[in-house]
Design goal:
Length: 224
């Protein structure tokens, strides 16, 4: 499989977020989603639930999947680089970090996509007051892309206009936080991040298929 998230544009529209607090549920959910999902997002919840060795095993057991670690790093360059490097050793392909730390603190790590948070689904008003500046950082450091809340359609459209098509835009907030599937895509996002609407469903496989299908039929007229 590809090493780069930009090459997975269009392969899937939905990235499941696995914020699960029971270790065995990670393997159960990945089994349910087998063959459907090319990218999953894991997080601090994952790392604290299954540990680094558990995460390494989960990645090995699902070698056709791109694992994106939502680390929301916000330290100095050297430390961000150490953490991102350790995550790469475990098998993580992409890391999300905070954009507000500035271009000087975005490390370069071989074979690893760095994606910058640029606007949050709730709060984060400092981000929105400095939106263009954070997008400029993305270009300056040549990050792989950005995370922008799905409930900020105007910012998604603005980022798309500023970044062009060589960067990915990932949008959370779909489902449990109220954004309709397809609405972030309709405004220019490449992927919609979906957590609870999939993993809390009684049938996560069916939920994924339904949301992926709705995201593929993105229609701006349904998003008013
Ligand atoms: P859910 O679909 O269950 O609301 O999960 C949303 C996911 O997106 C979580 O993993 C959360 O950390 C992430 N996220 C978010 O909700 N808002 C943001 O602004 C940035 C995020 O990474």
């Amino acid at each position: 499989m590809t090493d780069r998230i930009v090459d997975l544009k269009g392969v899937n529209r939905v990235i499941p977020a696995l914020d699960l607090t029971k270790p065995e549920r990670y393997w159960a959910l990945m089994r349910e989603l087998r063959g459907l999902v090319k990218i999953v997002k894991v997080s601090w919840v994952t790392l604290l639930t299954i540990g680094p060795e558990g995460l390494r095993k989960l990645i090995l057991d699902n070698s056709d999947v791109y694992f994106l670690m939502d680390a929301k790093l916000a330290d100095v360059n050297f430390i961000n680089g150490l953490i991102a490097g350790r995550l790469r050793e475990i098998g993580i392909r992409g890391v999300i970090m905070h954009g507000f730390v500035g271009s000087v603190n975005v490390p370069r790590v071989e074979d690893l996509d760095l994606i910058l948070l640029a606007s949050m689904t709730s709060g984060g008003e400092l981000y929105d007051a400095n939106f263009d500046y954070v997008i400029k950082i993305v270009k300056d450091v040549d990050a792989a892309g950005v995370v922008i809340g799905g409930n900020k359609p105007n910012l998604i459209a603005r980022a798309r206009a500023m970044l062009g098509s060589n960067y990915v835009i990932l949008s959370p907030g779909i489902g449990a936080q109220g954004v309709k599937p397809g609405c972030a895509i309709a405004h220019g996002a490449d992927f919609e991040i979906v957590g609870r609407a999939i993993y809390e469903s009684s049938n996560p496989r069916e939920a994924f298929i339904r949301i992926e299908d709705e995201a593929r039929r993105a229609d701006i007229n349904r998003c008013k």
